[in-house]
Each structure stands twice: as structure tokens, then as C-alpha cells.
Amino acid sequence: MLHVKGLTKNYGEPRPRTIFSGVELALDAGDYLAIMGESGSGKSTLLNLVAGLDRADSGSITLDGRELTTLDDDALTLLRRAHMGFVFQAFHVLPYLDVAANVALPLALLGVNSDAAGARVPAMLAAVGLAERAASRPSELSGGELQRVAIARALVHSPRLVLADEPTGNLDAESAAQVLRLLRDQIKVNGAAGILVTHSSVAAATADRVLMLSSDGLREK
Fold this sequence. Notes:
The chain is α/β, with parallel strands linked by helices. The protein has one domain: P-loop containing nucleotide triphosphate hydrolases (Rossmann fold). The protein is built from 7 helices and 10 strands. The chain has helices spanning 43-51, 73-83, 99-109, 114-127, 143-155, 173-189, 201-204; strands at 2-11, 17-27, 32-36, 58-63, 66-67, 84-88, 161-165, 193-197, 209-214, 217-220. Strands 6-7-8-3-9-10 form a 6-stranded mixed sheet. It has a 4-stranded antiparallel sheet with strand order 2-1-4-5, covered by helices on one side. Strand 1 and strand 2 (17-27) form a beta hairpin. The chain is globular, with a radius of gyration of 17 Å. The mean pLDDT is 93.
């Protein structure tokens, strides 16, 4: 479903530095992968390349047969909106919207009608244990609850690929464990593929497999 071949990324001018090269990766629906690496190894950069938020210097990224590196910015935006879900360390929950409205945002951007959205949002909130918090404001929620809102929002439109960048970095150990378990379970239930970028070996252990990123690419941990 996702194929990455020979991916290389350089930074800096006039003498660019190679962040990584020769990255190879393949994921099928239901796969859940963790990527680890030293600080500065390019973990978040790799996630941004896969998401089409940054451009590689060479290599290819194919999602469901579509080559992302050949798409223009508008096409990439539409592809992300329809086929990807994102969970970040910062929750990115809009403070002026209630929980249900935050979760419904991807559906609104896709033009899903209100009847369909009205069925999907409560179901997704129930799946993450927030059914009774639909009308709450973000300021009334704990960090763990906010990250569960972010997971519900990332999955409500049934994306093919879920990308999570240090999703438990702002949480205590107990909340982090709950969020990681929930993220894994919901990726599996929804038949998506997932990539978790983390510096935490505890978080990485929740994935099906763990790869280490270095300047020479990805290898099994």
C-alpha cells in the first residue's frame, strides 16, 4: 500500500548535508511500524516526506499506486486530506470548537454531508472513550483526553495511512500507555497502515516492528 524507494534528503546550501539516503520501506494495510533514531537523524523529516509536506532530493514514494513525488502541492493537499491522518506531540485541537466539532473537521474538509458526519463522529468518539465529552471544550480536557481527540480526528475519515510523530511526548506515563494502546487498536480496527516516529523504546514496543533510521537508511532494530 505504501512503498518508499531510494529516498534521499539533503539540507543546506551551498554545500548540502545528507540527512539520510537510500531509505526503503513497504507497508500493507494493517501494518503498524515504529521508526526510531538518534536526535537529528531525520525521523520527523522522513514522516514529512511520506506525507508530502516536504520534497525528497531523490527516490520515490507511492501510496496506493500514486507517486507522490510527481504531484503538485494542490494534488498533495487533496491526497493528504482524503487518505492520511495525523497525530502529533502537540495536540493541535482548536480551542474555540467543542470536541465533536474538532473531530468532524476532516469530514467537513472532504464535504461529507451532515447526516454521514453525524453518524461517524459519535462512533469515533465512543471508540476512543470520549462519548460523554462531545460537547466539552478542549480547555476542560486532560492531556490524555486531548490526544484521544486527536486520534479520533485522525481516523474519522477512514484514512489509508496514519502518521504519528511523538504522540505521547507531552503525556505522563499512564496517559501515554493508554494513548499508545488506543492508537494501535484504532489503526488495526480501521484497516489503516500506521507509522509511529518516537525516541521512546517503550512507545516503539507497541508497534508490530521497529526500524532504526540513520544516514544510511532504515534497518531492523
